[in-house]
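User: quick one, sequence for these C-alpha coordinates?
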Protein backbone atom coordinates (compact mmCIF):
# COMPACT_ATOMS: atom_id res chain seq x y z
CA UNK A 1 0.00 0.00 0.00
CA UNK A 2 1.12 3.55 -0.67
CA UNK A 3 2.03 5.64 2.36
CA UNK A 4 0.76 9.12 3.24
CA UNK A 5 2.69 11.39 5.64
CA UNK A 6 0.49 13.85 7.54
CA UNK A 7 2.41 16.91 8.81
CA UNK A 8 0.66 18.90 11.58
CA UNK A 9 2.39 21.98 13.03
CA UNK A 10 1.21 22.59 16.59
CA UNK A 11 1.71 25.60 18.84
CA UNK A 12 -0.29 25.50 22.08
CA UNK A 13 -2.87 23.05 20.70
CA UNK A 14 -3.07 20.61 23.63
CA UNK A 15 -6.87 20.26 23.50
CA UNK A 16 -6.92 19.59 19.74
CA UNK A 17 -4.35 16.76 19.53
CA UNK A 18 -6.46 13.77 20.56
CA UNK A 19 -9.42 14.88 18.44
CA UNK A 20 -7.22 15.33 15.36
CA UNK A 21 -5.70 11.84 15.82
CA UNK A 22 -9.17 10.33 16.24
CA UNK A 23 -10.51 12.01 13.09
CA UNK A 24 -7.54 10.91 11.00
CA UNK A 25 -7.84 7.36 12.30
CA UNK A 26 -11.50 7.23 11.25
CA UNK A 27 -10.63 8.66 7.86
CA UNK A 28 -7.85 6.21 7.01
CA UNK A 29 -9.83 3.23 8.24
CA UNK A 30 -12.05 3.75 5.18
CA UNK A 31 -9.30 3.99 2.54
CA UNK A 32 -6.58 1.58 1.43
CA UNK A 33 -3.49 3.56 2.47
CA UNK A 34 -1.01 3.42 5.31
CA UNK A 35 -0.11 6.68 6.99
CA UNK A 36 2.09 8.36 9.55
CA UNK A 37 0.96 11.35 11.58
CA UNK A 38 3.86 13.72 12.38
CA UNK A 39 3.14 16.50 14.87
CA UNK A 40 5.70 19.32 14.95
CA UNK A 41 5.65 21.00 18.36
CA UNK A 42 6.68 24.57 17.55
CA UNK A 43 7.81 25.73 20.98
CA UNK A 44 4.49 25.22 22.77
CA UNK A 45 4.22 26.54 26.33
CA UNK A 46 1.28 24.34 27.29
CA UNK A 47 0.88 20.55 27.47
CA UNK A 48 0.90 19.98 23.68
CA UNK A 49 4.00 17.80 23.55
CA UNK A 50 2.83 15.54 26.38
CA UNK A 51 -0.52 15.08 24.63
CA UNK A 52 1.29 14.02 21.47
CA UNK A 53 3.43 11.55 23.44
CA UNK A 54 0.28 10.08 25.01
CA UNK A 55 -1.18 9.58 21.52
CA UNK A 56 2.08 7.96 20.40
CA UNK A 57 1.79 5.41 23.21
CA UNK A 58 -1.75 4.59 22.03
CA UNK A 59 -1.16 4.71 18.26
CA UNK A 60 2.07 3.49 16.67
CA UNK A 61 1.65 5.75 13.61
CA UNK A 62 1.75 9.01 15.65
CA UNK A 63 5.16 10.71 15.85
CA UNK A 64 6.48 14.02 17.12
CA UNK A 65 9.22 16.51 16.39
CA UNK A 66 9.90 18.97 19.20
CA UNK A 67 11.61 22.17 18.09
CA UNK A 68 13.92 23.94 20.52
CA UNK A 69 11.77 27.10 20.46
CA UNK A 70 9.02 28.76 18.46
CA UNK A 71 10.38 29.14 14.91
CA UNK A 72 7.10 29.89 13.15
CA UNK A 73 4.59 27.83 11.22
CA UNK A 74 6.44 27.65 7.90
CA UNK A 75 9.64 26.44 9.53
CA UNK A 76 7.68 23.87 11.51
CA UNK A 77 6.24 22.66 8.21
CA UNK A 78 9.75 22.54 6.77
CA UNK A 79 10.91 20.37 9.68
CA UNK A 80 8.03 17.94 9.16
CA UNK A 81 8.64 17.72 5.43
CA UNK A 82 12.34 17.03 6.01
CA UNK A 83 11.49 13.97 8.15
CA UNK A 84 8.52 12.66 6.12
CA UNK A 85 9.06 9.62 3.89
CA UNK A 86 5.60 8.94 2.45
CA UNK A 87 4.66 8.66 -1.22
CA UNK A 88 2.76 11.90 -0.63
CA UNK A 89 2.81 14.50 2.13
CA UNK A 90 -0.28 16.27 3.44
CA UNK A 91 0.05 19.39 5.58
CA UNK A 92 -2.90 20.36 7.76
CA UNK A 93 -3.50 22.66 10.75
CA UNK A 94 -4.13 21.23 14.20
CA UNK A 95 -7.13 23.45 15.01
CA UNK A 96 -9.60 21.40 12.88
CA UNK A 97 -10.52 24.36 10.67
CA UNK A 98 -9.25 22.32 7.73
CA UNK A 99 -11.83 19.53 7.17
CA UNK A 100 -9.97 16.17 7.26
CA UNK A 101 -12.59 14.50 5.02
CA UNK A 102 -11.24 16.59 2.14
CA UNK A 103 -8.12 14.42 2.25
CA UNK A 104 -10.05 11.72 0.33
CA UNK A 105 -10.64 14.15 -2.55
CA UNK A 106 -6.99 15.21 -2.44
CA UNK A 107 -5.80 11.61 -2.72
CA UNK A 108 -8.23 10.94 -5.58
CA UNK A 109 -6.84 13.91 -7.55
CA UNK A 110 -3.28 12.84 -6.71
CA UNK A 111 -3.96 9.35 -8.03
CA UNK A 112 -5.39 10.88 -11.20
CA UNK A 113 -2.04 12.56 -11.94
CA UNK A 114 -1.79 15.83 -10.03
CA UNK A 115 1.50 16.46 -8.19
CA UNK A 116 0.12 19.16 -5.87
CA UNK A 117 -3.44 19.48 -4.62
CA UNK A 118 -3.93 22.66 -2.58
CA UNK A 119 -6.97 24.26 -0.98
CA UNK A 120 -8.35 27.78 -0.82
CA UNK A 121 -11.30 29.25 1.02
CA UNK A 122 -14.50 29.26 -1.01
CA UNK A 123 -15.67 32.36 0.87
CA UNK A 124 -14.52 34.53 3.75
CA UNK A 125 -13.95 32.71 7.03
CA UNK A 126 -17.04 33.43 9.09
CA UNK A 127 -15.34 32.23 12.26
CA UNK A 128 -12.89 35.15 12.47
CA UNK A 129 -13.34 38.82 13.29
CA UNK A 130 -14.19 41.38 10.61
CA UNK A 131 -10.82 43.12 10.71
CA UNK A 132 -9.11 39.74 10.19
CA UNK A 133 -11.22 39.13 7.07
CA UNK A 134 -10.24 42.55 5.68
CA UNK A 135 -6.58 42.04 6.59
CA UNK A 136 -6.55 38.62 4.89
CA UNK A 137 -8.06 40.00 1.69
CA UNK A 138 -5.58 42.91 1.61
CA UNK A 139 -2.73 40.47 2.27
CA UNK A 140 -3.42 38.35 -0.81
CA UNK A 141 -4.16 41.34 -3.03
CA UNK A 142 -0.90 42.98 -1.97
CA UNK A 143 1.19 39.85 -2.47
CA UNK A 144 -0.33 39.18 -5.90
CA UNK A 145 0.23 42.78 -7.00
CA UNK A 146 3.83 43.09 -5.83
CA UNK A 147 5.20 39.58 -6.37
CA UNK A 148 5.62 37.36 -9.41
CA UNK A 149 3.37 34.57 -8.12
CA UNK A 150 -0.42 34.54 -8.08
CA UNK A 151 -2.33 32.98 -5.19
CA UNK A 152 -6.05 32.53 -4.73
CA UNK A 153 -7.63 34.61 -1.99
CA UNK A 154 -7.61 32.46 1.13
CA UNK A 155 -5.12 29.84 -0.07
CA UNK A 156 -4.33 27.57 2.88
CA UNK A 157 -1.56 25.41 4.27
CA UNK A 158 -3.85 22.43 3.73
CA UNK A 159 -2.36 20.62 0.74
CA UNK A 160 -1.11 17.33 -0.68
CA UNK A 161 2.38 17.19 -2.21
CA UNK A 162 3.80 14.28 -4.21
CA UNK A 163 7.15 12.88 -3.08
CA UNK A 164 8.96 14.22 -6.16
CA UNK A 165 7.83 17.74 -5.27
CA UNK A 166 8.89 17.11 -1.67
CA UNK A 167 12.35 16.14 -2.94
CA UNK A 168 12.65 19.51 -4.69
CA UNK A 169 11.43 21.41 -1.63
CA UNK A 170 14.06 19.70 0.52
CA UNK A 171 16.79 21.17 -1.69
CA UNK A 172 15.60 24.74 -1.15
CA UNK A 173 17.46 26.52 1.65
CA UNK A 174 15.90 29.93 2.21
CA UNK A 175 15.97 31.85 5.47
CA UNK A 176 12.48 33.34 5.10
CA UNK A 177 10.55 30.43 3.61
CA UNK A 178 6.88 30.94 2.68
CA UNK A 179 5.35 27.62 1.66
CA UNK A 180 2.14 28.99 0.16
CA UNK A 181 4.22 30.92 -2.34
CA UNK A 182 6.94 28.28 -2.66
CA UNK A 183 4.43 25.60 -3.67
CA UNK A 184 3.20 27.87 -6.45
CA UNK A 185 6.76 28.71 -7.50
CA UNK A 186 8.00 25.10 -7.91
CA UNK A 187 5.35 24.41 -10.54
CA UNK A 188 4.47 20.79 -11.43
CA UNK A 189 0.90 19.77 -12.18
CA UNK A 190 -1.31 21.51 -9.60
CA UNK A 191 -4.99 21.56 -8.77
CA UNK A 192 -6.79 23.87 -6.35
CA UNK A 193 -9.99 22.87 -4.59
CA UNK A 194 -12.24 25.17 -2.52
CA UNK A 195 -13.18 24.45 1.07
CA UNK A 196 -15.24 26.04 3.82
CA UNK A 197 -13.35 26.55 7.09
CA UNK A 198 -14.89 25.01 10.18
CA UNK A 199 -14.82 26.62 13.60
CA UNK A 200 -11.73 25.97 15.70
CA UNK A 201 -12.23 22.91 17.87
CA UNK A 202 -10.39 24.64 20.71
CA UNK A 203 -8.20 27.68 21.33
CA UNK A 204 -7.78 30.94 19.46
CA UNK A 205 -5.85 31.98 16.37
CA UNK A 206 -2.44 33.47 17.16
CA UNK A 207 -2.06 35.61 14.01
CA UNK A 208 -2.17 39.36 14.68
CA UNK A 209 -2.27 42.28 12.26
CA UNK A 210 1.44 42.87 12.91
CA UNK A 211 2.33 39.25 12.10
CA UNK A 212 0.21 39.36 8.94
CA UNK A 213 1.88 42.60 7.82
CA UNK A 214 5.34 41.13 8.48
CA UNK A 215 4.40 37.97 6.60
CA UNK A 216 3.19 40.05 3.64
CA UNK A 217 6.50 41.94 3.45
CA UNK A 218 8.63 38.79 3.75
CA UNK A 219 6.58 36.82 1.23
CA UNK A 220 6.56 39.66 -1.31
CA UNK A 221 10.32 40.19 -1.10
CA UNK A 222 10.97 36.44 -1.26
CA UNK A 223 9.45 36.14 -4.72
CA UNK A 224 9.96 39.49 -6.41
CA UNK A 225 12.08 42.63 -6.72
CA UNK A 226 9.06 44.68 -7.78
CA UNK A 227 9.21 46.83 -4.62
CA UNK A 228 12.68 47.97 -5.76
CA UNK A 229 11.30 48.80 -9.19
CA UNK A 230 8.43 50.68 -7.54
CA UNK A 231 10.88 52.67 -5.39
CA UNK A 232 12.91 53.55 -8.50
CA UNK A 233 9.76 54.58 -10.37
CA UNK A 234 8.57 56.78 -7.50
CA UNK A 235 11.98 58.47 -7.30
CA UNK A 236 11.98 59.09 -11.06
CA UNK A 237 8.48 60.57 -11.02
CA UNK A 238 9.32 63.05 -8.26
CA UNK A 239 12.63 63.94 -9.91
CA UNK A 240 10.85 64.77 -13.18
CA UNK A 241 8.14 66.64 -11.30
CA UNK A 242 10.78 68.93 -9.82
CA UNK A 243 11.51 70.19 -13.37
CA UNK A 244 8.15 71.95 -13.24
CA UNK A 245 9.76 74.50 -10.90
CA UNK A 246 11.97 75.79 -13.74
CA UNK A 247 9.20 77.69 -15.66
CA UNK A 248 7.93 79.10 -12.36
CA UNK A 249 11.42 80.37 -11.42
CA UNK A 250 11.98 81.97 -14.84
CA UNK A 251 8.59 83.68 -14.90
CA UNK A 252 9.04 84.94 -11.34
CA UNK A 253 12.52 86.29 -12.15
CA UNK A 254 11.59 88.23 -15.30
CA UNK A 255 8.33 89.62 -13.96
CA UNK A 256 9.60 90.38 -10.48
CA UNK A 257 7.25 87.95 -8.79
CA UNK A 258 9.83 86.33 -6.52
CA UNK A 259 8.58 86.35 -2.97
CA UNK A 260 10.29 85.46 0.26
CA UNK A 261 9.89 81.74 0.94
CA UNK A 262 7.75 80.83 3.92
CA UNK A 263 8.85 78.45 6.66
CA UNK A 264 5.66 76.36 6.41
CA UNK A 265 6.06 75.43 2.75
CA UNK A 266 9.80 74.81 3.20
CA UNK A 267 9.37 72.50 6.17
CA UNK A 268 6.48 70.63 4.50
CA UNK A 269 8.56 70.04 1.37
CA UNK A 270 11.64 68.89 3.29
CA UNK A 271 9.57 66.58 5.52
CA UNK A 272 7.78 65.05 2.54
CA UNK A 273 10.87 64.31 0.49
CA UNK A 274 12.80 63.25 3.58
CA UNK A 275 10.08 60.74 4.40
CA UNK A 276 10.07 59.51 0.79
CA UNK A 277 13.82 58.95 0.89
CA UNK A 278 13.55 57.01 4.15
CA UNK A 279 10.77 54.88 2.61
CA UNK A 280 12.91 53.99 -0.42
CA UNK A 281 15.97 53.35 1.75
CA UNK A 282 13.83 51.14 3.99
CA UNK A 283 12.87 48.93 1.03
CA UNK A 284 16.51 48.64 -0.02
CA UNK A 285 17.53 47.96 3.59
CA UNK A 286 15.02 45.12 3.94
CA UNK A 287 16.42 43.38 0.87
CA UNK A 288 19.96 43.83 2.20
CA UNK A 289 18.82 42.51 5.57
CA UNK A 290 17.43 39.36 3.94
CA UNK A 291 20.75 38.86 2.13
CA UNK A 292 22.60 39.33 5.42
CA UNK A 293 20.50 36.73 7.24
CA UNK A 294 20.76 34.28 4.32
CA UNK A 295 24.55 34.69 4.25
CA UNK A 296 24.79 33.57 7.89
CA UNK A 297 23.61 30.08 6.85
CA UNK A 298 21.94 29.45 10.19
CA UNK A 299 19.52 26.50 10.30
CA UNK A 300 15.86 27.42 9.88
CA UNK A 301 14.94 25.28 12.87
CA UNK A 302 16.58 23.20 15.60
CA UNK A 303 15.13 19.86 16.67
CA UNK A 304 15.28 19.23 20.42
CA UNK A 305 13.68 15.77 20.54
CA UNK A 306 11.95 13.40 18.13
CA UNK A 307 10.85 9.76 17.95
CA UNK A 308 11.01 9.47 14.17
CA UNK A 309 12.91 6.88 12.13
CA UNK A 310 14.61 5.32 15.12
CA UNK A 311 16.36 8.58 16.01
CA UNK A 312 16.94 8.90 19.76
CA UNK A 313 14.58 11.25 21.54
CA UNK A 314 17.46 13.49 22.60
CA UNK A 315 18.71 14.92 19.31
CA UNK A 316 20.89 17.99 19.18
CA UNK A 317 20.79 19.74 15.81
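Assistant:
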Amino acid sequence: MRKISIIIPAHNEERNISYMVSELQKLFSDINYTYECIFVDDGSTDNTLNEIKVQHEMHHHVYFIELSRNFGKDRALQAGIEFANGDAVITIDADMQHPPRLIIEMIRLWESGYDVVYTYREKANEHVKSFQKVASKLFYKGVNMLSEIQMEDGIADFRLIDKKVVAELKQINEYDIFFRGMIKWVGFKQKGIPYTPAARFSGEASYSIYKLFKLALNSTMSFSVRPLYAATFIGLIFSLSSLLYIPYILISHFFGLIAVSGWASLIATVAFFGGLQLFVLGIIGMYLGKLFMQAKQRPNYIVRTTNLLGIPEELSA
